[in-house]
Design brief:
The complex is a heterodimer of chains A (114) and B (117). Chain A is mostly beta strands and 114 residues long. Helix content of chain A is 0%, strand content 54%. Chain B starts with a strand and ends with a strand. Classes of the chains: A mainly beta (114), B mainly beta (117).
């Protein structure tokens, strides 16, 4: 069935360094790839997304890249800050298929050390 | 400009009792999704509903779990005869109709945390 793998499960970086989280999806029909940030005790919040017709998207310190051929997509956070510490989830979906159902990765717990 | 509202935020039940979790979608959204998050794990899809209709329940356990989204009122996720393994955070998300929505974004609530003693 549909599957999204996410690595690493935990990531610790020094403040100011970059963080990279990688995901792989199995369903080649997936065309929408959002990234969510979940802080302790809160619901997931969308931080950036990318569609399959785009290879890269950037929003300030956050960027996402997509390799459709390899079915890989990655989240890049530059100049990390303590408030970036959270759990990050990638997901894959098929927009236009009549549903917004997401298949989520297992999450990456990011710790930014001051 | 309320977002997705879930209640209760925390619910404690003893084994064998029933749990009812409610979700009111964002204004203008007609579609609701329920996800379950076990401790230290990711979000697992359970069910997708629109008003008065279950679209996809492929992630729902076959027994004890049911969901509805009536014409009036919130969506409800119902767990009968709860067991300790049901302890988890249950998240609701909403979206506009996929046929009319401009993006694929799901908007999540803050979750309902169920503890089964």
């Amino acid at each position: 069935g549909e599957n999204v793998e996410q690595h690493p499960s935990t990531l610790s970086v020094q403040e100011g360094d970059s963080a990279v989280i990688k995901c792989t999806y199995s369903d080649s029909a997936s065309n929408y790839f959002p990234w969510y940030k979940q802080e302790l005790g809160k619901g997931p919040q969308l931080i950036i997304d990318i569609r399959s017709n785009v290879g890269e998207k950037k929003d300030q310190r956050i960027a996402v890249t997509l390799n459709k051929t390899a079915k890989h997509f990655s989240l890049h956070i530059t100049e990390t800050q303590p408030e970036d510490s959270a759990v990050y989830f990638c997901a894959a979906s098929k927009v236009g298929s009549g549903t917004y159902k997401y298949i989520f990765g297992t999450g990456t717990r990011l710790k930014v050390l001051a | 400009n309320a977002g997705v509202m879930q209640n209760p935020r925390h619910l404690v039940r003893r084994r064998g009792q029933e749990a009812r979790l409610r979700c009111s979608p964002m204004k203008g959204h007609s579609h609701v999704y329920w996800y379950r998050q076990l401790p230290e794990e990711g979000l697992k899809f359970m069910v997708y509903l629109q008003k008065e209709n279950i679209i996809d329940e492929s992630g729902m356990p076959k027994e004890r779990f049911s969901a509805e989204f009536p014409k009036e009122g919130p969506s409800i996720l119902r767990i009968q005869q709860v067991v300790r393994g049901d302890s988890a955070a249950y998240f609701c998300a909403s979206s506009p109709s996929p046929q009319t929505g401009l993006t694929g974004e799901l908007f999540f609530g803050e979750g309902s945390r169920l503890t089964v003693l």
